[in-house]
Amino acid sequence: DVVMTQTPVSLSLAIGQPASISCKSSQSLLGTSGKTFLNWILQRPGQSPKRLIYQVSKLYSEVPDRFSGSGSETEFTLKISRVEAEDLGVYYCWQGTHFPLTFGSGTKLEIK
Amino acid sequence: EVQLVESGEGLVQPGSSMKLSCVASGFTFSNYGMNWIRQAPKKGLEWIALIYYDSSSKYYADSVKGRFTISRDNSKNTLYLEMNSLRSEDTAMYYCVKLGAPDYWGQGVMVTVSS
User: Fold this and answer.
1) Contact B79, B104 (CB under 8 A)
2) Which of A21, B64, B73, B95 is least surrounded, with the fewest CB atoms within 10 Å of its CB?
3) Mean pLDDT for the stretch of residues A37-49
4) Beta partners for B93?
5) Residue A66 pLDDT > 90, yes or no?
6) Are B44 and A58 a contacting pair at CB < 8 A?
7) Residue B88, min C-alpha distance to chain A (Å)
8) Which of A50, A101, A106 minimises the CB distance to B44?
9) What pLDDT sits at residue B100?
10) CB-CB neighbors (< 8 A) of A58 in chain B
11) Do A48 and A41 meet the contact criterion of CB atoms below 8 Å apart?
12) % of chain B residues with pLDDT over 70
């Protein structure tokens, strides 16, 4: 199975500060279709996960453009340009290129 | 609006069985594969089962293979997860999830396995 390694484990940031979360995979996530199925989700406290980004850098329509995703092959990054209060929670990367799909262990974002 | 509404939450003893349901609305359920993903308390996310849109193929995580069965009824827009020989380590929130841009997650249903 593909192992997804996220760093850091936690972040504590003030409103307005930038955030960066790394996600590394044990195998290349570039699929035979030429697409890279690396995705990001956010789980706010007490809620189910919510979609953020798919195929490395594509934001879902409801996601604010302060979020961005980048990367290729085995190294990926989620960035928040300026953290807002509603961004607190646990961020997970997950891959859908290789079966079974696997998740990172999560990065907890706390607001100072 | 897309909705995935799980039901079947409960507390059961080790070794017993339980069945979860997920009713989908707001999209053409019969066109898409569906998944169950679970999250043990204070833990991360674990994919456990996938069923193709037409039930032609089903896949399971090793942790549940041989004990859990995923199924669907496209006439009822409903996804199921039958869980047998339940263990304490199956205690988790179970999510019904459509994956594949767009992704949709249900609110989840809690399954507790304890004596």
Assistant:
1) no
2) B73
3) 96
4) B39, B110
5) yes
6) no
7) 21
8) A106
9) 84
10) 101
11) no
12) 100
Q: How far apart are CA B34 and CA B27, in angstroms?
A: 12
- Beta strand A58-59 pairing with A75-80: unpaired
Is the CB of A50 less than 8 angstroms away from the CB of B44? no
CA B37 to CA B16: how far, in whole Å?
20
List the single residue in A60, A92, A94 with the smallest CB-CB distance to B102.
A60
Residue type, A29: L
Sign of CA dihedral A6, B40, B77, B71: positive
Rounded Cα–Cα distance for residues B13 and B86 (Å):
8
Count CB-CB contacts under 10 A for residue A75: 13
Residue tagged 């069985």 (tokens): B17
CA-based nearest residue in chain B for residue A93 = B45
